[in-house]
Predict the 3D structure of the following.
Amino acid sequence: MKFYKHLKLRTNDPIIAGNQIKEALNEYKVVRVTPEWYLNDLRKFFDTVTEQIGEVNLIREDFTKGGVETGEKWMEIQYDHDIPDMAAFRHSKNAQPLHTDESYRFTGGVRFFYCVDVAEEGGETTFVDGPVLIDYLKNYDEEFLKELTTENITYSKANNSRTEKIIDISPEGEINFNFNYFCIDKNETEEHKKLNQRFHDFLQNQVANSYMMEKVLLMTKHRYH
């Protein structure tokens, strides 16, 4: 699959828009969507759009209850000065380190974000293309890459847990990542905790803000996958 596409929507019909986005997702991993039509009710529009893509999972969590699922679809990402920065990055003024969503549960392969109010500064959503990162790791430390592709690591949050390789490469060459530094299970082995730390350090020191990063700014009236 190709990595990135900017799709301009010239319709306010959410069913047509959803089908156009679905078609783009058949070829691209990241699709930035810019509506070129006034949308009066963003939530209603994107509720219908997402239903055209496939089965919708209800992923909203309650921060006050340790991340317990609420049974709602959309999860709000908004700064809250009453919540400590390191307690929940989605309510923090600080950028979350590189990670994959849903490291502690599997809810499907597509994530939708839409923006209501843009941050005065920052606020980009960042992406790294898997094959590019793998090629870099091969030259950087092949033994490290071997560990990342063979060791099964458990990440957990609230009542959910998921055990996967940090990097899983199928026999057909399909690459899947599963990693969130802050969600490693407390009962994991010390060896796995060290591997989790090493990959975190590698991402922050070698990948973040490098040529491998694709930064997509969430703008009001712009929508992203």
Summary: The first strand starts at residue 2 and ends at 9. Helices lie at 14-25, 42-53, 130-140, 142-150, 190-207. The mean pLDDT is 89.
